[in-house]
Amino acid sequence: MAFRDLREFVEKIETSGGLLRVKKEIDPNQEISAAIIKAGPAAVLCEKVKGYDIPVVANLFGDREKINMALGLEKENPIEEYLKRVERLQPPIEVGYGPVKEHVVTGEKVDLPGMLPILVVNEKDGGRYISSGIIVAKDPEFGYNLALHRLQIKGKHRAGIYMSELQHLHLYFKRAEERNEPLEIAVIIGCDPSLYLASVVTGPPDLDEYAVAGALRKEPLEMVKCETVDLLVPAHAEIVLEGRMLPHTREKEGPFGEFSKYYGPEGERPVIEFTALSHRSRPMYQALYLGRRQRENVYLTSLPKAADLYRAVKEVAPEVKDIYLTPGGCGRYHAVVSLKKRFEGEPRLILSVVLSHRIGVKHAIVVDEDVDIYDPHEVEWAMATRFQFDRDSFFLNDTPIHLDPSSAFKRKTGLLTSKLGMDATLPLGVPYPQVCDVSKEVMKKIEDNWQAYLEG
User: Fold this and answer.
1) 387 near 336, Cβ under 8 Å?
2) What average pLDDT score do residues 181-210 get?
């Protein structure tokens, strides 16, 4: 079942017992972040936010179960179902009106810090940041692009933005700047969860993430026209900002606690001037915590990226079973691949594909299909008992990377890194000690009747 909006998704999470309500007044300056950390994998709804009459909801993607719930995916290996859906793109449909238009302010009446409970996420952030805004832009050749980018509030209707040169929004902006034109953008805050998952997919510049969201939810999105820019936005969004990214204008932006769990540095970066704000009656402000103890961003980004890797790897290794981008690897830097190995050297083919992919994996491990790639103890066991560093590893040096703090520290540029591939699979056709375990029949008997064993 597709969720029409954020509210339906929050209701579903609460019904399943996965939502905590914070009823005491809470400060958007770090207190909400601390509450998100304390809640662990649970979603959080802060009902009373100091200085505002808008509730804040966060951590909606705080574990794998919520990701599966957002899209109605099976719990076991959801990648196959995910890929089947995204192959059937469903372009959005335009409608005349939607709830996001219930309240509209334009021009000088726009007051972002006065109207929205924008968080100070971490202690040493450069200011208040929108970290959950899906940036919408359009290029004359490539069409629509959706992506998550941090926005530092610089006044009532002005913000700084950070974009990596590897990201498509940067490409769109540079093309507009070469035409001496501003890049029109919209910022979606709070919406159907399929949009958040679509906004972090990887693909060519002309991939329409609105159509990807329609594919993931198996229904096209309903869209409405913006007030001051030539863009379409979801009719059932909670909040939409409209504005223009100014050409040939740079101001200081940062620092900000990033997905890598380190502060991204301050720098001279593009500026956005906002021209309109529209929202539903008493909207919900959706927040996204990034920091040392983050959960949500890791799980939000890992499935789409793992699915993209899975599709690429399947071309060289049809018996790949699953891919996991680990939480400890920030949902991006560390990949574990499950393989039914057919011949020696096949893991190296897989590792070559994974490490060269634009996602930016730094360390990749291939293990046999008997290893549970979601259990770090199992993966470590495979590394400890099936891997020899001099024989089973190889490096790629000076390859592009996004926001890797170790790269920035060791090199003059923060865009190049070294990558490591590791083959922790069993050798074929040679004697090897057998793995010890109880029989499958006995294990199944215990699992099926466990309560009876406890009760006697």
Assistant:
1) no
2) 94
* Contact in structure between 67 and 73 (CB atoms under 8 Å): yes
Average pLDDT over residues 168-183: 97
Q: Which amino acid is at 10?
A: V
Element (H, E) at 263: strand 263-264
Percent of the chain past pLDDT 90, that is, above it, reads: 78
Do 56 and 156 share a domain, yes or no?
Answer: no
Given this model, what pLDDT does residue 143 score?
Answer: 96
What whole-number distance in Å separates Cα of residue 246 and Cα of residue 142? 20
φ, ψ (nearest 5 deg) of residue 87: -75, -15
pLDDT, one tens digit per residue, over 395-432 is 888 776 766 777 755 555 556 788 999 999 999 989 99
**Placement of tokens 């998704």 in the chain:** 9
340 and 402 co-located in one domain: yes
Residues 300, 397, single domain; the answer is yes
Contacts of 99 (CB under 8 A, 6+ apart): 5, 235, 236, 280, 281
* Interatomic CA distance for residues 391 and 393, integer angstroms: 6
**Minimal CA–CA distance to 55: which of 71, 32, 77?**
32
Q: Tell me the pairing of strands 222-225 and 232-234.
A: antiparallel
pLDDT at res. 261: 80
Q: Which two tokens stand for residue 416?
A: 């190049």
List Cβ neighbours of 195 (8 Å cut-off, separation of 6 or more). 134, 146, 188, 209, 213, 221, 234
pLDDT in tens, 140-166: 999 999 999 999 999 999 999 999 887
As a whole number, mean pLDDT of residues 44-51 equals: 97
Q: How many domains does the chain have?
A: 3
Spatial distance between the Cα atoms of 53 and 182, rounded to a whole number of angstroms:
34
The first and second tokens of residue 208, run together, are 């329409």
What is the model's pLDDT at position 402?
A: 66
Q: Nearest Cα to 394, choosing from 423, 420, 356?
A: 420
Beta bridge pairs of residue 151: 130, 161
Considering the domain architecture, whether residues 250 and 311 belong to the same structural domain is answered as no
65-279-295 Cα angle (round to 5) = 25
Same domain, 116 and 255: yes
CA distance 336 to 39: 28
Candidates 200, 212, 214, 211; CA nearest to 169 is 200
